[in-house]
Amino acid sequence: MKGAEPSQENIETALVNIADDWFGQMEESSRLATVRASVDYPETMHNFLSVRPIELIMMVMQADTQEFAARMGPMVRRVAAEATSLSLYCFTDQMISLERVVEDRLAALTEDVGPMISQWTLGSAITHLRSFVSGVEVDQSQVERWVVTTNMVEARKLAREARLAARNTQANREAVSMEVSPAPIQESGTAANTITRPITMVPPPDQDLTFPPSLLAIPTITSQNSTMSNMSSLPSTWLPIIARDQAVTVTTQQPHSDAYLSGQPSKRRRLNTESKPRGEVRRLIEQSLQEAMEQTGLQPTGGAAVVMEQVGDSRNIQEAVGQMARESFQERSRDRENFQPEKFPAVNKLVKKN
Q1: In the prediction, which pLDDT does 346 show?
Q2: Low-confidence ranges of the chain (pLDDT < 50)
Q3: b/e per residue, 232-257, with b = 16+ CB within 10 A?
Q4: What does the domain layout of the chain look like in residue ranges?
Q5: Taking the CB of residue 318, how many other CB atoms lie within 10 A of it?
Q6: From CA 133, how far away is CA 136, in angstroms rounded?
Q7: Residue 39 DSSP SS3
């Protein structure tokens, strides 16, 4: 639907295509939840996401500023409430499966950030989710109309496969048409149906085919306001951004696990071991905060030392870090296939204690 008019028909088609592309993620979520025997959760969410947001999108496309400001918030909350109620209806254990699905999706989204930020994001999201669910009020009939039972799955599967096949065929045709340049048709001097094909210029054998070194050079900026000769082709507004990005360099290395260190040479193992976080919780918080400031280049107004001391001495932050660590240990210890209590007696003791 790229470049098509934002009509309701085109928006409906686009939503169905998006839901088709997300269906694999919906199936992953279904494997983590305890779903009712007669309900197909992936197909149910596919049915909801391909139809329900249409009203919201049409409002965004057509409403004026005043109407948009008045209706946007309530409509988004309504769609979120119906999606939450629909999931709770499909799960036999309701909130237990819902939290498990949300945690899994958030873990996938935050896998590129540090473990502390990821755990904080998960804990904060679950807290907000519980608060949101406690205030959800959706009529049962508004939920049941989206439910897809197991006897309806085969027909929906065939329809989805047909749509995907048609989209792939269309994409292949567009790719082929882009590779073939349209040839101009001469209208004078020759017949109307005579086609002039473009001439391919072949460089002479003695021509230097080396890529121009000037295009491979990395531009260097010595200050925010300076403009080097090889930067003259760039917009002036880009120069401060490039200078700022060059000033931010990563100087620290994330600590390695014991499993990784055990396979390293003795000298490298000793150097990597020194970078592992050690000591009390306060020391861990200060070290993590210092690494974050060094990697981002941010400098607190009151000074880095003052901020690290204030954050490290905060009892609430220390308790939050400790709680996150215990929850992480408990979660990982549930994988009995990989977690061997006899090799990690301290972790096993902590898990049993909590």
Answers
A1: 73
A2: 188-192, 215-218, 221, 223-229, 250, 252
A3: eeeeeeebeeebeeeeeeeeeeebbe
A4: 8-159, 279-353
A5: 17
A6: 5
A7: strand
